[in-house]
Amino acid sequence: MYNSSTFIDITCPLCGDCKEKHLYHEKVWGGGNEIFLLCLFCDVVFLYPFPLKEKLKHFYENQFGTYMIERSVEMEWNNLEEQYKKLSSREIPLRIPFFDKYLFRGSVCDIGSSTGFTLDYLNKKGFQTFGIEPSKEHALFASRAGNKIFSSFDEIDFQFDNVIHYYVLEHVLDPISFLKDSLKILKSKGYFIFEIPNRNDALYTLYKNAHYKNFIMQKMHLFYYSVKSIRFILDQLSVNYKLLKGERYGLDNHLNWQINNKPGNLEIAISKKTNNAYKNFLIRQGYNDYFIIVGVKN
């Protein structure tokens, strides 16, 4: 059993700092005896111990959908057609402003392309669309619309005008190598866009909701990033970037967590104006729930 003053002597897998690590959270959703530790040098939170690389590969190729059925029942993970529709309707409106502002016309590669809902949207907008997706069933589904889907970086021997990925970086064992590999397949002066969760979101940091903490700290998220820790990575790369803040979930979701201690939205009438004002307040205060990173390869 650990307590809030627990320190563990282990090297940080992100920055290599050898000093003791602070216990951040001792419960891991879907896990066993793992815990989450905080590196006081680079400010990243990481799973300890890490899963084996071979187990991760097998999981994402064959088991990710099964895992998500239990974790996210509203997303129809056992029905790819319904999953495609729901993800498209939820995510595409959030991504369109960044696509319109930043993407070069030409080719785009979506790393972690899932069912291909993002690629299909971009294909209809005139882009040449490619994806990298380790899940065999998702890759097959995404390829049905004509998208070219690879299983890994190793299969690609050319470069794209744009590279995008959404909620992938927190899943990878070596985020710096992953981002370097993603830049290798990006043309010089090409654009990249990616999103990650903010570990300092309102429910965890401001409201300190215990049930939310136990839910959000899950075994397939190997890292949780703050402004400091994601900048630590990006500042090592040959890129120019902007770190933007976004808030996906609104007041109805946060009230549901506070009242019912579970995911979902509280059935209450909240105006769009009020909800947007609440989201903007959280963004200004640094309690936003995700980051959008946009940039150009030097």
Number of separate helices: 11
- Look at the helices and sheets and give the structural class: alpha/beta
User: What's the number of extended β-strand segments?
Assistant: 12
Helix content estimate: 25-40%
- Going across the biggest sheet, name each strand in turn: 7-6-5-8-9-12-11
Globular, elongated, flat, extended or rod-shaped: what is the shape?
globular
Low-confidence stretches: none
Question: What would you note in describing this structure?
Answer:
The protein is 37% helix and 22% strand. Helix 4 links the parallel strand 5 and strand 6 (128-132). The protein is of the alpha/beta class and 298 residues long. The protein has helices at residues 53-62, 64-71, 80-102, 117-124, 136-143, 175-184, 202-206, 210-216, 227-234, 251-260, 272-285; strands at 7-8, 21-25, 35-38, 45-48, 107-111, 128-132, 148-150, 160-166, 186-197, 223-224, 239-246, 290-297. The radius of gyration is 19 Å and the shape is globular. The strands form two sheets. A seven-stranded mixed sheet has the order 7-6-5-8-9-12-11, with helices on both faces. The chain has a five-stranded antiparallel sheet with strand order 1-2-3-4-10, with no helix packed on it. The N and C termini lie far apart (48 Å). The model has no long low-confidence stretch (mean pLDDT 93).
